[in-house]
Amino acid sequence: MFTVIRVDRLEFDAREQMSQIFAEGFTQWLGFFSNDKEIIARAFAHMFVLNQFYVAVTDDHKVAGMAACTDSTAHSVKLNPKELRKHLGLYKGTLAGLFLKKEFEATLADPSPVKCSIDFVGTAPEFRGQGAAMVILRHIIENTPYEQFLIEEVADTNIPAMKLYQKLGFQVYSGKPVPLKRAQKIGINHFISLKYEKSLKG
Fold first, then answer.
1. For residue 52, which of 37, 72, 33 has the smallest C-alpha distance?
2. Which residues of the chain have pLDDT under 70?
3. pLDDT score at 200
4. 202/187 Cα distance (integer angstroms)
5. How many C-beta atoms lie closer than 10 Å to residue 9's C-beta?
6. pLDDT 10s digits, 107-142
7. From its phi and psi, is residue 188 left (phi > 0), alpha (psi between -120 and 50) or beta?
8. Domains (range + CATH), the chain
9. Is residue 146 classed as helix, strand or coil in its secondary structure?
């Protein structure tokens, strides 16, 4: 049903569809900047580093899901403060550039040529439950040179994501409690980190 391909090898521009998937998955976290998914999509459409992303696409060029895979020698996203200010306004756009740069352009604590970080996993609403994210992650695991795959900071309330990762063989290796005040505000108690190691799968 889906073909998985690295975005820079697509025959069409996927940025707009990717930004819609991003907005669906991340607007709740970006509520300070805007609660409007269309504004979030337009503000962040510029940021994707295309050779770091994989997408599941249909025969009619619909992007069903996406995920980034990077070894930290290159970022999967690169924020442009000018674009953020254009869509979010001078004040919030400037703050987004300052605060989100650290979070979105983070690198692995101990980068290695055999280790990658999987980020920005998302599925378009109309394709949820159809296995798009699973085929992307399987493709990344089977077709990239890495031995260890890390997924950082999954919300403990994101049960579908946790089930997917564990079904693929990812194992929890750490958890970070959310400060009580913030936990009460966002409804999340812990952020969970998971990893998959090829060497352990025989």
1. 72
2. 106-109, 111, 178-187, 200-202
3. 66
4. 38
5. 9
6. 666 767 789 999 999 999 999 999 999 999 999 999
7. beta
8. 3-146 (3.40.630.30)
9. coil
Amino acid 108: pLDDT: 64
Q: Which residues contact 98 (CB under 8 A, 6 or more apart)?
A: none
Cα separation, 163 vs 151, whole angstroms:
13
pTM, two decimal places: 0.90
- What separation, in Å, do the N-terminal and C-terminal C-alpha atoms of the chain show? 28
Q: What is the spatial distance between Cα 48 and Cα 67, in angstroms, rounded to a whole number?
A: 11
Query: What pLDDT, in 10s, does the model give residues 34-56?
Result: 999 999 999 999 999 999 999 99
CA neighbor of 15 nearest in space, from 73, 72, 80: 80
- Cα–Cα distances in Å, from 126 out to 39, 48, 51, 121? 20, 22, 25, 15
